[in-house]
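Today's session is about reading a structure prediction critically. Students often jump straight to the picture, but the first step is always the sequence itself: look for stretches that repeat, for charged clusters, for runs of hydrophobic residues. Only then move on to the predicted structure, which in these notes is written as discrete structure tokens rather than atom positions. Here is the chain we will use throughout the hour.
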Amino acid sequence: MSPSLLRNTALQIVVTTWAQQDPASALAWVNALPAGSQKDGVLATAIVALSQQDPTSAVEYASRLPNGPIRDYTFKQISSNWAQADPAGLLAWATGNLTGTAYADATQNALRVMGQTDPAAAAAALAQIADPNVANPAFQQLAWAWGAQDVNAALAWAQSLPADNAAQRNSAITGVLESWSNTDPAAAASYIQRNLATDPSFKTLATQMVNTWGRSDPQAALAWAENLPAGSAQNNAVNAAIAQLAKFDPQTAWQDAQQLSGNSGNTVMVNVINAWASQQPEQAAAALANLPAGKTLDTATGDVAKNWLNQDPNAASQWINTLPQGSARDAAVNQIITTVGKNDPAAAFNWATTISNETTRNAQVVKLAGQWSSINPAAAAGAAQNALGSLTDLTSAQQTALQEIINKAPQP
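Below is the predicted structure for this chain, in token form.
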């Protein structure tokens, strides 16, 4: 540790202890230090320590700090300390004295503590906050804390919120149900289906429900989603449940995903393949045979290649070599180029020449030849010369770029 850093650390420790015992003397001493960032940092430490005993005085001192990260940090720490001791007092003071980020931090700190100790009072205070940027995040935070203490009271409050402010009402309902679903997902799911089926937020709530439940019991979450009334809410919930199931049992999830249809079904299949490839890439690669040619197959093939290359590059490369020419193989080749391009531009260049899409191939070849040239100009020049003689549909700019690579090579 450098002497200056060691000195600063020692000052922080001494001033913290001193400010807790005799804040006036500690602050007077710090104020006498030479101006600069070190003084501001030590002063901030003293002010934060003071806030544990006298938060209003601490705020007064903090307001004299220059604008910047140290001042912002000091206000945040003061509001955190004050909230623990007197959240209602902090909330009342912040309302008339703070603005911007400092006000938001103080208000949310106060409401967080009140939500744990007196959620009904926190709800009443929250109703008085006009700024949606401050209020909206606090609704879900309060709902979560209240839901952990008294689900019924929390739900009654959330559902009593004005329907014309959908963002706040949905945030509160979501917070309660997320809290509940962590402890009793079956009961939370039953409540959603029984009481909120006609609620405008039902689709969102059902999807969030299976996402939470699926982390602990994906099969149960999927069974619940499949029993929802037919429609977009059911489709979204089933898709989300299968995606969660794929993390635990990709083979079963794959079987379920193949029963889906439409664009959302294609998205789910790609997500399942990606999850499966992260665990068992060879089996995921075999499953690709069940997909028809098209964008879904291309994306899934690229995902398998990416995951497999990260686990076993040699096996993945051998598999890519067996793929038939086409857009799916191109997606896999682009992944191997990304993987090896920086460390082995020669190998990446050779792979690029096998891409079937001429536009993609030519762009990759020119880019990789340029990268290769910075490492081995002579070899890159030879490859560029071959590309000029063999590749079709090169643009004039690409031909010029390849010729420049050739010209840069040392002459024999």
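Discussion point for the tutorial: DSSP finds 25 helices and no strands in the chain.
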